[in-house]
Amino acid sequence: MKKIAITMCALLIVLSGCKGKETTPSAGSPAKQTLVIGLIPEQNIFKQIEKYTPLADYLSEKLGLKIQLKILARYGNIINNFQSERMDGAFLGSFTGALAHSKLGLEFIARPENLNGISTYRGLIFVRKDSGINKAGDMKGKIFAFVDKATTAGYLLPLAYFKMNGIRDYKKYLKETYFSGTHEDVIRDVLNRKADIGAAKDTVYYRIAQSDRGILDELSLLEKSPEVPENALVLRKDMDNKIKKRLKELLLNMHNDPEGEKILKTFGARKFIETTINDYEPVFKYAREIGLDLATYDYLND
């Protein structure tokens, strides 16, 4: 009976905390708060995880909160996933960032400046040099590979290009169109002759070219978009302001911390810079020019 009484007492202390000493979860405790941060499928998912994991680990340690990375299956999934997966933020491209701000009110925090001091990118339209395609008029009856309807480089740029060249219905003008899902896949598809024409962001294009000389030797550029912001971190508007402020401070000051500087180098960045809605004006302007209302835009691929 004595043992039973002792056991019941201990159980009551654990369950209610009454008359028991309160304990703080250890740093490695699964009970600590977790921030779920989404990643768009810009390239191979394993490469994405490999790139962002050191950054997430660094921020987790400094914040005292676990940061969980979640790869999105599609660019457009970000809108649904923020609600269904209870995500707290995401690193988004220029169009998905503008879209998420317009539909969900997400706030822009910071974006990386690469090792050359550049924090923007351009969209590219490209073909094989031996394709015989040199202008929009040569695209009739050809196959065009897009990335996703929620990308600037992989969809908005081609739409603007078609409009500028008098192509009213590109689906009828072209033999076939499809969405590859990633910038890297579009580039590979054109290089390997699966598609005649492709559109993707220049940062991915030139990064692949560093290890695959065929990109520069065999592909030719037809069009470039205006500069738009590189992938930026956006956060829920209703996130705890202390956490939001601390996260922003950590990112903007990483380059002043020896440990942070090492992580940045691995990430391929010199530093993070402050990012605001004003930086996205080129994207909003692009959308207006082609008659696209971001607040009501159907971003799901056909």
Q: Could you give a quick summary of the protein structure above?
A:
The chain is of the alpha/beta class. It has helices spanning 2-16, 45-63, 77-84, 94-104, 152-164, 170-173, 183-191, 202-209, 214-218, 241-252, 258-267, 281-289; strands at 34-39, 66-71, 89-92, 107-114, 120-121, 123-128, 143-146, 176-179, 197-201, 219-224, 228-229, 232-235, 269-274.
Topology:
Layout (H helix, E strand, L loop, with lengths): L1 H15 L17 E6 L5 H19 L2 E6 L5 H8 L4 E4 L1 H11 L2 E8 L5 E2 L1 E6 L14 E4 L5 H13 L5 H4 L2 E4 L3 H9 L5 E5 H8 L4 H5 E6 L3 E2 L2 E4 L5 H12 L5 H10 L1 E6 L6 H9 L13
Parallel strand pairs: 1-2, 1-3, 7-8, 7-9
Antiparallel strand pairs: 3-12, 4-12, 4-13, 5-11, 6-9, 6-10
Helix pairs in contact: 2-11, 5-12
CATH architecture name of the largest domain:
3-Layer(aba) Sandwich
Shape: globular
- Major sheet: size, sense and barrel closure? 6 strands, mixed
**What is the overall pLDDT average?**
87
Task: Compute the number of structural domains.
Answer: 2
The CATH class assignment of the largest domain is Alpha Beta
Flag low-confidence runs.
Answer: 1-32
Alpha-beta content class? alpha/beta
**Any idea what the radius of gyration is?**
23 Å
Enumerate how many helices there are, as a single number. Answer: 12
Helix content: 40-55%
CATH fold topology of the largest domain: D-Maltodextrin-Binding Protein, domain 2
Span from first to last CA?
A: 70 Å
**Proportion of residues in β-strands:** 15-25%
Which series of helices and strands comes N to C? HEHEHEHEEEEHHEHEHHEEEHHEH
Q: CATH superfamily name of the largest domain?
A: Periplasmic binding protein-like II
Which sequence of strands runs across the widest sheet? Answer: 2-1-3-12-4-13
Tell how many strands the DSSP assignment holds.
Answer: 13
